[in-house]
Design brief:
The complex is a heterotrimer of chains A (403), B (312) and C (304). Chain A is mainly α and 403 residues long. Chain A is built from 17 helices and three strands. In chain C, strand 1, helix 2 and strand 2 form a beta-alpha-beta unit. The chains are: A mainly alpha (403), B alpha/beta (312), C alpha/beta (304). Chains in contact: A-B, A-C. Chains A and B meet through helix 14 and helix 15 of A and helix 2 and helix 4 of B.
């Protein structure tokens, strides 16, 4: 065995010593390993001659001016070491947050440093090193937050703070040199228009599903026969792939709109929002209906009995007792649907439904990954925000009712 | 007040209640006692039409219960079940106000009534009115359950194992409180229990049921002294009977003039408790005192033994 | 945009609205690809410049979607390709599609007879399957046409072609080229990619991934120039001609007959090189299709 090999083996054996395990945080070891490997070894950014060709990877020290790169490297390494040690979660949270903000700021500095002024078509995008670093410190932040056992209000505040940071970076123009924002500059009208459509489609299909699913769920809970007929059908609908579903909606709607032209004035056509909306509505029915049924079932038997015995009519029982008690479970179903629909709307772009999917598919067709990113990132962010907000709401409601 | 007339209830081929007739006098407590499956809960639920009789009829104050819409009937009858069924998403005050709200009482009247009941059940309105059920102890929940049943001033209260979830010490107090309450309000109570002790302690009359049929309906003294042969006899419990019989009478009724040595016992305790004291102290007799401390006389072991004898 | 929610309330209003159908705006659509975006935006700008009310549904969806929408009357006009008519009417094997003029006439007749759709003036460009070769290789070996290419490959020229599996296997595509120009590409001279995306094949050639120096392209692809490729001339006319043509519903054309004349000079000016350049600006430079359309129309004086 070579001398180097022996030394490596010796230092690796440190990891096996029992005292080692006690001093270091297990997850922190992973985070440290990721960060320490990504910083020197993985490209931090790529520089492309134009938006469609592949670029050249730039290491952390090539991508940034030395005056910035060296202190930044130190900062990130320090944060990674803090992750490694067993320290208070508050410290880890701060370290992780500072690291992420630093990385986000640093990537904005890259275009200024690496793009020669005459290369107007050149594009800079984040590379694997950037993503791995963000991922590693994001785990650190998430783990620290979990250990702090933050309540729903604290979590929403953290989300708001994160949104403020991102908003500040965008507003300051720090990222304007990056490829994704250049795509935005060329497609800003479409971005906001499709964004509005995306949100509209997701929410209106949710609203329709709740309006229909609530009474359907109540009926299914009251009647086992209806339940055993309905839930399997809804289950089958869930399994139809979304593209196929959108396609299935087009033909009957097209026929309908052709027979009754008045419907066209109301946007009912075989293309566009109408088939997308109906498909999304169908996909939303199962989670809503099933959760209404489960929510109603889990009302304690003696509570329902007491309600009956005290002289409430069926609808009074439903509205005053059973539905309020079922609300957290129903809200969970709504959360599932909203996050699901935000994702599904992306595919609706293929049938003219609009939404961020427009950008994604145009980007795919043009082999322009940054245009895809411009469409995908807001979609993911929307889904993430919806999930966090609704989860916090559900937990907050739950806390009020139980010890 | 309640006339149960040849009532039967079938579930498929199974008769949960079979040809049962019973009459409950106004202002009394009737306990329905039996083992599980005896049909006592089913019978209770037929009084407020949570379950409809298959045959027969039930009259309350002379009116057939079927002539009144079910919800209206139930709003006029208090109902307490095991587990209480307090609405977890409503405060104590709102729970108690359930039936008044259903009856559209005006807000002030309801508030007054809620506070009245809280005070009656020794729950400070300032402390407890805005608490949620999960914040209360078991005993407090039980009291709120009964308070809620009495909120709309019903003249009939139906209770199904209302003390089942309480521990023995609290249960005894709760039973005492119920008796006091009933004497004060004059409300008619039909109470289901599987516990013979409880049935004897609470009931003015006991209805013993087995497999859907009424086996004996009489005062506790009668049931203890002359239990119907078979099931009732077994239920009453041979070895327990003398003690149970003693528990029905207070010392005040058995005291005789005279003197005895030792610490006096109250004239309000039952003969069973007096027996326990006599045995514990190894005495033949003990002095008896009234609540104000004045001497009433004495109680002797031989007088007790005479009372306890069951043989005809 | 989503008026579906007010359907129940406003049904009565619809009756009155339907009466005023003649005042409806023209619905301009296009396919979801780069060139569709470009041509669709050009049509929108031209019609608006001539004072027409236009509803913009550019980048609507894939070919089947857009076609169905036109036939159903949900859109009024969109840019299609003459060669595609062969597929719409199940006559793809007919050789007449290889002739630009004959193909156009056939498409025009078939679509009018079947669907009352009018094919307006086509552009003199051919957005059909072609082979693009790295400029350096082409000039080094003096290859201009597919005939040159065929001879060079048969003589042992070092070539590796990136193409979709459809291109490589479909009898009408690569096999047709091989037959007509007397060359065969062996499996190790091919890089087969899934999906029909020429941007991926062009990228492979530009970066010489795996030794690729040739790519399946569509004639007017914008990335060709930027990738350093040249399109080899299909001098024997092996492929059907796909000339971009605006097609419009007869009813819409009758309502506004000037549309035909308005679009004629514009489309006539869109030759292969022009389309490649314009597509290139959108695809390679990342400019917005609308901006590129307006800029072009202004530079040619079609727009003030």
């Amino acid at each position: 065995m070579t001398a180097v090999g022996e030394r490596l083996l010796k230092s690796a054996s440190v990891f096996a010593a029992p005292s080692f395990a006690g001093r270091f945080d297990k997850l922190g070891v992973v985070i440290f390993a990721l960060a320490a490997a990504a910083l020197p070894l993985e490209p931090f950014a790529t520089l492309k001659a134009n938006r469609i060709v592949s670029g050249k990877g730039l290491s952390f020290f090539d991508a940034l001016p030395a005056a910035v790169a060296e202190p930044a490297f130190g900062l990130l390494l320090a944060a990674a070491i803090l992750a490694l040690l067993r320290t208070r979660p508050e410290l880890k949270l701060v370290a992780g947050a500072v690291a992420i903000i630093a990385i986000l700021a640093l990537i904005g500095l890259v275009p200024g440093h690496v793009v020669p002024p005459e290369a107007s078509l050149a594009r800079v995008a984040p590379a694997s090193g950037f993503w791995i670093l963000i991922f590693a410190f994001a785990i650190l932040v998430a783990d620290a937050m979990a250990r702090l056992e933050l309540g729903p209000v604290a979590r929403v505040s953290a989300l708001a703070a994160a949104a403020l940071v991102v908003g500040a970076i965008l507003g300051s123009g720090l990222w304007n040199g990056l490829s994704v924002l250049k795509e935005y500059a060329a497609h800003s009208d479409a971005f906001w228009r499709e964004g509005a459509t995306h949100v509209e489609l997701a929410f209106s299909s949710l609203a329709a599903a709740v309006l229909a699913g609530l009474p359907l769920g109540v009926a299914c809970q009251r009647s086992p026969a209806l339940r055993s007929a309905t839930l399997p059908v809804l289950n089958i609908i869930q399994t139809v792939p979304s593209i196929a579903m959108y396609g299935l909606m087009m033909a009957p709607l097209g026929l309908l709109a052709a027979r009754f032209p008045v419907l066209q004035d109301f946007g009912v056509r075989g293309i566009g929002a109408a088939p997308a909306l109906i498909a999304l509505f169908l996909y939303s029915l199962l989670p809503v209906t099933a959760n209404v049924v489960v929510g109603l079932e889990q009302a304690p038997a003696e509570v329902v009995e007491a309600a009956k015995g005290m002289g409430m009519t069926g609808s009074q029982r439903l509205l005053r007792v059973e539905l309020p008690l079922a609300f957290p479970v129903i809200l969970t179903g709504i959360r599932v649907v909203l996050v699901q629909n935000i994702g599904l709307v992306t595919v609706a772009a293929l049938i003219g439904g609009g939404g961020f999917g427009e950008l994604v598919f145009q980007g795919i067709g043009q082999s322009a990954n940054d245009l895809v990113l411009l469409g995908a990132a807001p979609t993911i962010a929307l889904a993430f925000i919806a999930a966090i907000l609704l989860d916090a709401l559900i937990e907050w409601l739950d806390k009020r009712k139980h010890p | 007040m309640i006339e149960i007339d040849a009532v039967s209830r079938y579930f498929g081929d199974n008769a949960a209640v079979e040809d049962l007739s019973l009459s409950v006098a106004r202002g009394t407590i009737v306990t329905l006692v039996g083992t599980s499956g005896s049909g006592k809960s089913t019978l209770l639920r037929m009084i407020n039409r949570l379950i409809e009789p298959s045959k027969g009829s039930i009259l309350i104050d002379g009116r057939d219960t079927r002539t009144v819409p079910g919800e209206k009937l139930r709003r006029g009858i208090g109902y307490v079940i095991q587990g209480y069924g307090l609405f977890p998403h409503w405060t104590v005050a709102r729970n108690i106000a359930t039936v008044p709200n259903l009856l559209n009482w005006d807000a002030r009247r309801t508030e007054r009534r809620v506070n009245e009941l809280l005070a009656l059940f020794e729950l400070d309105p300032n402390l407890h009115a805005s608490k949620f059920p999960h914040e209360l102890s078991g005993g407090q929940q039980q009291r709120v359950g009964v308070a809620r049943a009495l909120a709309a001033e019903p003249s009939l209260l139906l209770m199904d194992e209302p003390f089942g979830a309480l521990d023995p010490i609290i249960r005894a107090k709760a039973q005492e409180d119920l008796l006091t309450l009933q004497r004060r309000l004059g409300v008619t109570i039909v109470l289901v229990t599987h516990d013979m002790e409880e049935a004897i302690a609470l009931g003015d009359r006991i209805a013993v049921m087995d497999r859907g049929r009424l086996l004996q309906y009489a005062s506790p003294a009668e049931v203890l002294a002359r239990p119907a042969p078979g099931f009732v006899q077994r239920l009453v419990g041979d070895r327990e009977r003398p003690f149970r019989l003693l528990s029905l009478t207070k010392v005040a009724e058995c005291a005789e003039p005279g003197e005895a040595a030792g610490e006096p016992i109250s004239d309000q305790v039952s003969l069973r408790e007096a027996l326990s004291d006599l045995l514990a102290r190894g005495a033949e007799a003990l002095p008896v005192a009234a609540a104000d401390g004045s001497s009433i006389g004495r109680i002797t072991l031989s007088a007790l033994l005479a009372r306890a004898r069951l043989a005809a | 945009m989503n008026k579906l929610t007010s359907l129940v309330a406003g049904l009565a209003l619809a009756a009155a609205a339907a009466v005023g159908a003649e005042a409806d705006p023209i619905v301009v659509a296009s396919k979801i690809d780069t060139e569709g975006n470009l041509l669709g935006n050009i049509i929108v700008q031209v019609l608006q410049a001539h004072g027409l009310q236009v509803t913009n549904e550019v980048s609507l969806g894939t070919t089947p979607i857009v076609r169905k929408a036109l036939i159903a009357g949900e859109i009024d006009i969109y840019p299609e390709y003459t060669g595609n008519a062969g597929f719409f009417f199940n006559k793809a094997d007919d050789t007449l599609w290889k002739d630009a003029a004959k193909g156009y006439e056939e498409a025009k007749t078939l679509d009018y007879d079947a669907n009352k759709i009018v094919w307006l003036t086509p552009a003199p460009a051919n957005n059909t399957w072609a082979i693009g070769l790295l400029e350096s290789v082409a000039s080094a070996n003096k290859l201009k046409t597919l005939d040159d290419f065929g001879k060079w490959v048969a003589a042992g020229g070092k070539v590796k072609l990136a193409g979709s599996s459809e291109f490589v296997n479909s009898a009408a595509a690569l096999p047709a080229f091989e037959k007509a120009y007397n060359f065969t590409l062996k499996p190790d001279q091919l890089l087969v990619l899934s999906g029909g995306d020429t941007s991926a094949t062009i990228k492979a050639a530009a970066e010489q991934t795996d030794g690729v120096n040739a790519a399946m392209v569509y004639g007017t692809d914008g990335a060709i120039g930027a990738a350093g490729l040249v399109v080899l001339d299909d001098d024997k006319g092996v492929q059907p001609v796909y000339a971009p043509t605006p097609i419009i519903r007869e009813a819409a054309l009758k309502a506004h007959p000037e549309i035909a004349d308005d679009l004629k000079p514009v489309f006539a000016s869109l030759d292969l090189k022009t389309l490649q350049t314009l597509n290139g600006r959108i695809q390679v430079n990342g400019e917005a299709a609308k901006d590129v359309a307006i800029d072009y129309l202004k530079s040619k004086g079609f727009l003030k």
